[in-house]
């Protein structure tokens, strides 16, 4: 990769890091706002997502430093909707995850054929995020509904 390609990759990786750190805050907040009969498994799932987001942020930051960049101290967008129904939380989660997956696709496009390391990293993260999106989508469906959820 040339210098301008590395700078672009660093910029995208920092964006990923910021989005993933926002995920840590978002999922932690959500885990505190769940009430009702299914609280325990949902809170556990949300806490796991917060931990996973932190690992993803750290991984992106490590790649920033590998490229000679400076990891961002910013956090991605956080929107408090004051809606804490589990369905609302899941729909907000879908929106957040779609933004994150978009950044991973952006990294893949910028590094494809230029860096096996970054290209494979982006592909691995896209695969995981798409599986996560599918999981959230299935959680939003009514029992027995086999068709994907659409807003």
Describe the protein.
The model has no long low-confidence stretch (mean pLDDT 93). With 151 residues, the chain is mostly helical. The relative contact order is 0.16. The chain has a single domain, classed as Up-down Bundle (Ferritin). It has 4 helices and no strands. α1 packs antiparallel against α2 (39-66) and α3 runs antiparallel to α4 (116-140).
Topology:
Layout: H1 3-32, H2 39-66, H3 86-111, H4 116-140
Residue ranges: pLDDT <50 for 5 or more in a row?
Answer: none
The tally of strands reads: 0
Largest sheet: none
User: How much helicity do the residues have?
Assistant: over 70%
Average pLDDT figure: 93
What is the N-to-C succession of helices and strands? Answer: HHHH
Query: Helical segment tally?
Result: 4
Strand content bin: under 5%
Which overall shape is indicated by the principal axes computed on the Cα atoms? elongated
Radius of gyration over C-alpha positions, nearest whole angstrom: 16 Å
């Amino acid at each position: 990769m040339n210098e301008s390609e590395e700078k672009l990759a660093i910029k995208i990786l920092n964006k990923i890091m910021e989005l993933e750190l926002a995920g840590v805050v978002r999922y932690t907040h959500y885990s505190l706002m769940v009430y009702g009969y299914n609280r325990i498994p949902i809170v556990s799932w949300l806490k796991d997502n917060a931990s996973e987001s932190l690992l993803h942020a750290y991984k992106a930051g490590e790649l920033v430093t590998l490229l000679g960049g400076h990891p961002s101290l910013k956090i991605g967008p956080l929107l408090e909707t004051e809606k804490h129904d589990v369905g609302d939380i899941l729909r907000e989660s879908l929106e957040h995850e779609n933004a994150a997956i978009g950044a991973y696709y952006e990294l893949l496009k910028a590094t494809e054929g230029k860096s096996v390391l970054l290209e494979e990293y982006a592909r691995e993260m896209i695969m995981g995020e798409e599986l996560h999106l599918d999981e959230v989508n299935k959680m939003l469906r009514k029992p027995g509904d086999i068709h994907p959820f659409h807003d």
